[in-house]
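Reading a protein record of the kind used here takes little practice once its layout is understood. An example of such a record is reproduced below.
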Amino acid sequence: MKRFHIHVHVDDVAASVAFYSKLFAAEPSRVEADYAKWMLDDPRVNFAISTRGTKVGVDRLGFQVDDAAELAELSERASAADMTLLDQGETTCCYARSDKHWIVDPQGIAWEHFHTLDSAPVYGESRKETPPATASACCVPSGKPIGVSVEPASSACC
């Protein structure tokens, strides 16, 4: 079963942990000085924050899968849609060892598809292969601007 993934760059992990813990009515499943993660079941989401991005806001989106077959299915979908796919293979990112690949949407937002294999004692590792262009954080491919910018509220909504 897939779990939606959202990674947000924050300036202050402690303040953000306090805010999101109240918002989700749950404590994070992992907290480090520069990182925190909530594995929520309702809604089914892997919500992570860190100080490792280039600007405050949504850093990347993605899907976390439960097994290699689901990861292969997402890779096949990307290939069938003629999306450029960067297969990163096994890597360490966000205090986890994962098998992953990346796609970037037309706006430049990075999407990671990954299967977590184990936890890791470090945030990331240097890669054999660099994702499209260079990485602004341990994990995020760049090239086009990555992230979602939030515009000021207007009188109209949605």
